[in-house]
From TrEMBL, chain A:
<feature type="domain" description="Transketolase-like pyrimidine-binding">
    <location>
        <begin position="4"/>
        <end position="179"/>
    </location>
</feature>
<keyword id="KW-0560">Oxidoreductase</keyword>
<dbReference type="InterPro" id="IPR009014">
    <property type="entry name" value="Transketo_C/PFOR_II"/>
</dbReference>
<dbReference type="Pfam" id="PF02780">
    <property type="entry name" value="Transketolase_C"/>
</dbReference>
<dbReference type="InterPro" id="IPR033248">
    <property type="entry name" value="Transketolase_C"/>
</dbReference>
<dbReference type="InterPro" id="IPR029061">
    <property type="entry name" value="THDP-binding"/>
</dbReference>
<dbReference type="InterPro" id="IPR005475">
    <property type="entry name" value="Transketolase-like_Pyr-bd"/>
</dbReference>
<keyword id="KW-0786">Thiamine pyrophosphate</keyword>
<protein>
    <submittedName>
        <fullName>Pyruvate dehydrogenase complex E1 component subunit beta</fullName>
        <ecNumber>1.2.4.1</ecNumber>
    </submittedName>
</protein>
UniProtKB/TrEMBL annotation, chain B:
<keyword id="KW-0560">Oxidoreductase</keyword>
<keyword id="KW-0670">Pyruvate</keyword>
<feature type="domain" description="Dehydrogenase E1 component">
    <location>
        <begin position="15"/>
        <end position="311"/>
    </location>
</feature>
<dbReference type="GO" id="GO:0006086">
    <property type="term" value="P:pyruvate decarboxylation to acetyl-CoA"/>
</dbReference>
<dbReference type="InterPro" id="IPR017597">
    <property type="entry name" value="Pyrv_DH_E1_asu_subgrp-y"/>
</dbReference>
<protein>
    <recommendedName>
        <fullName>Pyruvate dehydrogenase E1 component subunit alpha</fullName>
        <ecNumber>1.2.4.1</ecNumber>
    </recommendedName>
</protein>
<dbReference type="GO" id="GO:0004739">
    <property type="term" value="F:pyruvate dehydrogenase (acetyl-transferring) activity"/>
</dbReference>
<comment type="function">
    <text>The pyruvate dehydrogenase complex catalyzes the overall conversion of pyruvate to acetyl-CoA and CO(2).</text>
</comment>
<dbReference type="InterPro" id="IPR050642">
    <property type="entry name" value="PDH_E1_Alpha_Subunit"/>
</dbReference>
Amino acid sequence: MRTIQFREAICEAMSEEMRRDESVYLMGEEVAEYNGAYKASKGMLDEFGADRVIDTPIAELGFGGIGVGSTMTGCRPIIEYMTFNFSLVGIDQIINNAAKIRQMSGGQFPCPIVFRGPTGSAGQLGATHSQAFENWFANTPGLKVVVPSNPYDAKGLLKASIRDNDPVIFMESEQMYGDKGEVPDGEYVLPIGVADVKREGTDVTIVSFGKIIKEAYKAAEELEKDGISCEIIDLRTVRPMDHKAIFDSVKKTNRLVILEEAWPFGNVATEITYQVQENCFDYLDAPIIKINTADTPAPYSPVLLKEWLPDHEDVVKAVKKVLYR
Amino acid sequence: MKKVTKETYLNWYEEMLFWRKFEDKLAQVYIQQKVRGFLHLYNGQEAILAGALHVMDLSKDKMITAYRNHVQPIGMGVDPKRVMAELFGKATGTSQGLGGSMHIFSKEKGFYGGHGIVGGQIPLGAGMAFGDKYHKREAVTLCFFGDGAARQGSLHETFNMAMLWKLPVVFCVENNGYAMGTSVKRTANHEDIWKLGLGYEMPCGPVDAMNPVAVAEAMDEAIDRARRGDGPTFLELKTYRYRGHSMSDAQHYRTKDEVAEYQKIDPIVQVKDILLEKKYATEKEIKIIDKRVKERVAECEKFADESPYPDKSVMYDVVYEQEDYPFLSHKL
């Protein structure tokens, strides 16, 4: 199978869907003439023209709302944020309009829109550029939240997101755009809301999503040398969450570690913890451990940032703790 | 512009009076607690809707506004019984009882809400126009908002892109003098809101919005500009609301004399005077219209009263297009 970069997978997904459906367009800062701030829309202006690949001024509130409004008259926009940190100045349009317009209108106005861009930290970018808002969006009924971790999942899930008739928050990472992975030549679509067992194991379940899952892979390799078998579940979709995949694994391993790059208070891991205690209480042989970022804004200095971010060493420690080793 | 004839005036009189009485009825049933939540009434601003409807192409043009939104959908052709039922929270309401007073919608009749966040609908209106332009429909969106919303950043971002992309939209600020209890002069260094268009080189100007003819003339020019592909217009519709911002408003920010001054130029009175002056109708004929309006409003109340409340399952049916969306449970 051929190997392509994450950014190419994103570009292929958007381009294929735009060829398939003329109502799909791409709008955002630097998406057209610059070919995307991270080159995720390279060549798309040339193929689709300026009516469908649209550069905007720096006005997230305005172009986010124009995107939502255009769904009301038959468009299926892909709105790119250069980072989800910038979505905050336009979040009113996501929470109050995209997520609610169908419900408030009694079902008259579906909102088929994708808001996509990078989430989380990406090196020493400081406090305002290192945030993960998956749980903010996932808290909101009306939205779906998809966070792929490799090129194959990214392509199949982005195509599904563009075809979905509900608003989807699709979160990538600056640090994943260069990641390479196997992606088939032919067309495929992956279902939203279905987790993927990335590594089968028997001793402990590690649930994660997005780029931080790579730390779980590293930890699992290391733990294997100690004879510890880790099962790694990639959520891929945060909302709706594939509870069954988590429960099935926990019922098998009886131990759960959740790795999420986000602040610890009321995050996605907290929700999983609640669901597992409610549904798998009798299967648990140890308390669940969440591994998150520090409960502070992201620091800049490399030493501080390493301390702030969770990594594979934290995962190894947590796994050993739930195994009482 | 389509001629303003005897029929136009007769229609304006009956419809504006109906809108006024519809709102009065809502105020009445609100006190009886049949309608709850916030309730923002349109009394005094009717000439704007009457003038706009005279020049819109209702087969394809669209309207979007804020939360003072009960009568616009009626003007666009929505059955007023269903609007009343929505306010009563009934299954027969325009949003099946999920929207309430601030969120009336009718896709079928081109009324796109009904929006509760001040200024949040301004980008939506431009987006609707974007979609129409994208699909080459030659349709125009009228995007209404209040003088308070004119101070939101969403207006500026939207004005900029609407001009940049020459979107077929008419931005209409209904300046009724007060953003809730704060007068226009207390919110900015200037009072001519229409001048906000100048910075974007958007055609703009003030309109006497107590007079439906003046509104229709300004709208006609703006709609024509949008339809021929020359982009947006910004109209400042100078109007007045007689009632409070919502129902619990003691109105200490203005005097009774001020309200009385505006009632002298009331749009319904102005139209009635013309009917009599030009002998388009006699006092007796006007009384027949008044009686008919009263009956139409009563029918709305009866319908809303007698309609059933929605089934609990509807709460889950309308959030997602996905039919089997796995909602989390919230009660035992």
